[in-house]
Design a protein that fits this description.
Blueprint lengths: L13 H11 L3 E5 H12 L7 E6 L6 H9 L3 E4 L2 H9 L7 E4 L5 H10 L2 E4 L2 H10 L4 E7 L21 E2 L3 H10 L3 E6 L9 H14 L8 E3 L17 H18 L5 E4 L3 H4 L3 E12 L4 E5 L8 H5 L5 E3 L8 E7 L8 E9 L6 E5 L19 E5 L5 E5 L4 H12 L11
Parallel strand pairs: 1-17, 2-3, 2-10, 3-4, 4-5, 5-6, 6-7, 6-8, 8-9, 9-10, 12-14
Antiparallel strand pairs: 1-11, 11-12, 11-16, 13-16, 14-15, 17-18
Helix pairs in contact: 6-7, 8-9
Bound molecules: pyridoxal-5'-phosphate.
Length: 424
């Protein structure tokens, strides 16, 4: 049985969350602006004497309001699709502050990115060649595969030997040859070894690999060490020691600067660490069901809204914010409302005795929550509410009604007529 989590793990008062659930209904993602800002500021304070710049990985949470907050803290952006590039441009970001790490990019996406003037980070020799042919005399960056394996789950381990991402280290000379043939300057080198890194030593090893691998790049202007800084998902788990990491990394980065003549910027591009703990998914219990060996709390959300437990067996603390005092603990499986048996949000969780109508807060869902949500089972996406730094609550995405959801499906698919059988 998992321990009953204390209310203190919530990033804001439970009464405030309860008031939001009652006013906005559920399911609703809630984000705390002041916490996002504090976390950005913490990262920015880590390397005071080094040319380090911070990019936010938009894939973690791409609500434009959230991106705007992070931009206001002086972050640029790490994007992984042309759509994310367009989103950041639309928000007024300088293209020079947008890093686009391509992955099986199409020609159309390449031309769009080149026209926009963002930093294109190329992950294969084939794409590098087609970029160089199309844009001789220009510049780009290369993503490499450092053969360092990490991440909270095999599905997000991106740096290992068999990963689809990045150019093999032994092919870097070939990459520089291709670029030189077309007068393209490789301005940067990048790697991202995984999301939710488990062993801090692995980031240090990756830093070492990139510093060494950059030696053959004549036009080097930056080295990007990727994202992956982990957060604790269990309330009794120790957080990643950022200060220690920064101390260890600083020594190595300073030594590198001392031996290189070129001015170099170092980038990190975290997503989860910036927004994960600042988000909560609010849901309401509508069913309590004793199935003999397990008692299920049935909720109005599911893996369509929070995929991480189903996809990665990820653990998120769940707090009953309606009933948290005085009642005996019971053990529940917390189930979603999607028509699949894998739709479980938490297993064997100790909670105060819970009833239909109670609200639950699913913690640490600010990253890879809403961005991975779908409309599976034709259910609407959750609403999103921001608790602003000034303390008021602001809707940053409306939840559609079931009627609007179906109406929009008809609109998007171009079907206007009522259901009748189609003759072949
Ligand atoms: C290329 C790249 N950079 C940065 C990130 C952000 O990772 P995290 O949210 O773990 O910091 C990811 C996430 O998978 C990524 O693929």
């Amino acid at each position: 049985m998992q321990p009953n989590p204390p209310l203190s793990i919530l990033p804001v008062d439970s009464d405030r969350l309860l008031a939001i659930a009652q006013k906005w209904g559920t399911p609703t993602y809630v984000y705390v602006e002041s916490l996002i800002r504090q976390r950005c500021q913490k990262l920015k304070s880590l390397f005071p004497d080094l040319p380090v710049s911070w990019l936010y990985a938009v894939k973690a949470n791409d609500n434009p309001h959230i991106i705007r907050i992070i931009s206001g803290e002086g972050f640029g952006f790490d994007t992984v699709s042309y759509e994310e590039v367009l989103l950041c441009l639309k928000l007024g970001t300088d293209p020079k502050d947008i890093f686009y790490t391509e992955n099986n990019m199409t020609d159309a996406e390449m031309h769009g990115a080149a026209k926009a003037g963002v930093i294109l980070n190329v992950g294969s020799l084939g794409r590098l060649r087609s970029f160089c042919e199309a844009y001789p005399g220009s510049e780009c960056s290369i993503r490499v595969k450092p053969d360092i394996s990490d991440g909270h789950h095999a599905k997000v381990d991106t740096g290992n030997q068999d990963s689809k991402f990045g150019i093999r280290l032994d092919l870097i000379p070939e990459a520089t040859r291709i670029a030189a043939d077309f007068g393209v300057r490789i301005r940067g080198i990048h790697a991202h070894i995984g999301s939710g890194i488990q062993e801090p030593e692995n980031i240090l090893a990756e830093i070492e690999v990139l510093l060494k691998s950059s030696a053959g790049l004549q036009d080097l202007a930056f080295i990007n060490f990727g994202g992956g800084i982990p957060i604790p998902y269990r309330h009794d788990e120790a957080p990643f020691d950022l200060d220690r990491f920064a101390d260890l990394a600083s020594g190595r980065l300073k030594a590198f600067i001392a031996t290189t003549e070129k001015p170099v910027t170092f980038f990190f591009e975290p997503g989860r660490w910036v927004v994960g703990p600042a988000g909560i998914l609010l849901t309401q219990v509508n069913t309590v069901k004793d199935q003999g060996r397990k008692v299920f709390l049935g909720t109005d959300t599911g893996f369509n809204h929070l995929l991480r437990p189903a996809l990665y067996d990820a653990y998120h603390e769940v707090v009953n914010i309606s009933e948290h005092t005085g009642k005996t603990s019971r053990t529940y499986h917390i189930a979603g409302n999607i028509c699949e048996s894998g739709d479980m949000l938490g297993l064997d969780r100790a909670l105060p005795e819970s009833s239909p109508g109670d609200y639950l807060a699913i913690c640490d869902t600010g990253a890879y929550g809403m961005t991975m949500a779908s409309q599976y089972n034709r259910r609407a996406l959750p609403a999103e509410v921001l608790i602003t730094s000034k303390g008021y609550h602001k809707t940053i995405r409306k939840r559609k009604t079931p009627e609007e959801t179906v109406k929009d499906l008809f609109k998007e698919t171009g079907l206007t007529a009522a259901l009748k059988s189609e003759t072949p």
